[in-house]
Structures are given as structure tokens and as C-alpha cells.
Amino acid sequence: MNDLAAPSPRRIAVAPMLDWTDRHCRHFHRLLAPHAWLYTEMVTTGALLFGDVARHLRFGEAEHPVALQLGGSEPEDLARCAALAEEWGYDEVNLNCGCPSERVQRGAFGACLMNEPKLVADCITAMRGATTLPVTVKHRIGIDRIEDYTFVHDFVDMVAGAGCRTFIVHARNAWLKGLSPKENREIPPLRYEVAHQLKRDFPEYEFLLNGGLADTQAIRVQLEHMDGVMIGREAYHNPWILAEWEQAFCDPAWQPERREIISGMVAYAACEAREHGTPLRAICRHMLGLANGLPGAKNYRRLLSDPDALRTAGPELLEDAWNCVRQPG
After folding, report:
1. What HAMAP family does its record include (predicted)?
2. Fewer Cβ atoms within 10 Å of its own Cβ: the N or the C terminal residue of the chain?
3. Which helix (H) or strand (E) is 267 found in, with range?
4. Which tens digit of pLDDT belongs to each residue from 34-63?
């Protein structure tokens, strides 16, 4: 059920994942799914305003479309960082209102911002005043024991009033105390019907569903209700499924071979080593799941995880590892 004039460009999105969705991971995912909307790891405003901007924001042209996810709660700081996102060529800037970790809470941002919708609206207003990029929000459906639909409805209503037009809904509550970030992704029950109701109540806005999606049929069902879906750990651990989703939901003619993906990553790794001194291990670590389910996958993973091989070999190690996999192409 998509009430927008055209299908969402974010029909399939890969979630921002701390320590995982760096630029090397995103390049790999782009080879698998040319139309997927990609997100950076969450970058805090402090890291950009007081740290190494290039280290956090540099990315390759091949990654487009790619969104920068920000963590912060000071409107002025977020505005400055939104301007940086546009300066560096991103396609979207996203505000994290869903992360429940204690570290994020100490910074007074992430999921705890759902308790302060007026502040979030002020942040969106400031960010939109500093950039022409779309400013979007990723949020949960509730905090701790708050399961009243009115809570998330009023949050979306106020934030939309500040000009946000795209909401990424992680369909679980966030527990700010008592659960680890991992437990927050697994223990609070998924309530997809809450996200569906938001789309019905705000049909003029774009809504993506996040949480628990792991197979093609589940995504197909949710796209009957939502404008798009966002997938996290399943896409990371079983990356070939991105190619399947590209074919199923974006481009029916898409039929890559895994060896083609390996060849693309060999070229990328060689370029990274030459131009930036990037160690091979920084790239290989994202590719361990490419051979999942195929004969020889264990040897493929073993070679790409071997510290001695990674220290001494060049990008051709990727081809050597793939030769362990007993499958044509």
C-alpha cells in the first residue's frame, strides 16, 4: 500500500549498523544490489564537529544512493552536521531516534529522544534549514513499557509538522534500562501492526519497516502495507540475499554471479590499498557470508579470516578464497 505518487526509492534499504556498515561494506552491498538505499553507521555530531571529518564521511561514488545517519540532540550541532552531509555529497541525512544503548543515552540522543518529540521537531527544523537534502528519522514504536499507540502517533505527528516526510519504523519498543542493544533487537515483541497503522494514519508520508525481516516472502507481505523495508543483520550475515531482493523488488533482469562480485571487490581492494593504504582485512571481514550454503564455504571463510594470509597477501586472496567454493561462476 503505497500512497506516494511513485514507488519509493527506498523500497529496499540496508540498516545502519555500528562497526559494520562502513564504506567498504557499503561498496560490497552496492555490487550486490544496485538499487538498495544504503546507510552509514551512526556518526555522532561530536565526532564530526571535533574529530576527523574525512575519516567519518569519505565514501565512494559507487555507493549512491547513500544516507548519513547522525546521532545527536542539539539542533545547532545537527544543523552543522547536516550541512556537512550535503557538502560531502550524501543523498539523505537521517536522525537516530531508535538506538537504546547506554552510551547513546548518556549523550541524550537515540531512542530516549522519543520522550521529547518537541526537541526532535526542533532538530528537524534546524537540519532542514541547513541542507536541501531529505531529512529523515529512524525511531521505535515505544519506550520501555509504553505501548499506547498514541505515543508513537503523536511523535510522528509532531516531527512531521517540522517537515520530516520519511520515517523508518523499527517495530519494537526500546527498553532504556535492563536490556542490552542485542537484547533490544530480539526480546521486545515485534508489532508490525503499529507501523501499518502509522502508514494508514499518515498516508502522505513515506514509511519504511525495520525489524525481524529475513526472507523474500516476509518482505513481499510487508510491502503490501509499507513504502519500503529496511533490513539489517540478515543482509550483513547473508549478503547474497541482497541480490535476490534486488531481482525480486527492484530489477527483475538482475542476475549477477558471485564470482563477478568477487572480481569487483578485488578491483576495489586494489584501489583502496593503492590510494588509501587500506588493509585487506578491513574489506574481507564484510564478505565472509557470501558463500553461505555452498560447498567449500568453510574454507572460504577460513582463508579470509587467516591473519597471516591477510597480512601478507594482496587482493588476489579474494579469488583464492573463492576458488575454495565448489560452484561454477
Report:
1. DusA_subfam (MF_02041)
2. C
3. helix 258-276
4. 999 999 999 999 999 999 999 999 999 999
CB burial of 35-69 (b: ≥16 within 10 Å; e: otherwise) equals bbbbbbbbbbbebbeeeebeebbebeeebebbbbb
Q: Within 10 Å of residue 298's Cβ, how many Cβ atoms?
A: 12
Single out the residue of 237, 203, 239, 234 nearest to residue 219, CA to CA. 234
Chain-centroid distance of CA 141 in Å reads 18
Q: What is the pLDDT of residues 179-199, one digit of tens each?
A: 787 887 788 899 999 999 999
Instruction: Provide the residue ranges of all domains of the chain, joining segments of one domain with +.
Output: 12-249, 258-322
CA gap 192, 324 in Å, rounded: 41
pTM exceeds 0.85 for this model: yes
Q: Determine the Cα–Cα distance for residues 124 and 128; give it in Å rounded to an integer.
A: 6
3-state secondary structure of 68: strand
Residues flagged as binding site for FMN: 16-18, 69, 138, 170, 210-212, 232-233
Query: Is the CATH number of domain 258-322 1.20.120.1460?
Result: yes
Q: Residue 82 burial (CB < 10 Å; 0-12/13-18/19+)? A: buried
From the number of C-beta atoms within 10 Å of its C-beta (0-12, 13-18, 19+), residue 323 rates as middle
Binding-site positions = 16-18, 69, 138, 170, 210-212, 232-233
> Active-site residue among 25, 81, 97, 99?
99
Cβ proximity of 171 and 197 under 8 Å: no
12-249: what CATH class? alpha beta
Question: So what's the pLDDT on residue 1?
Answer: 46
Q: What is the DSSP letter of 92?
A: E
Task: Check if the beta carbon of residue 51 is closer than 8 Å to that of residue 73.
Answer: no
Query: What cell was used for 65?
Result: 544512493
Active site residue 271: no
How many whole angstroms separate alpha carbon 267 and alpha carbon 316? 9
CA distance 251 to 33: 9
H or E segment and range at residue 67: strand 66-71
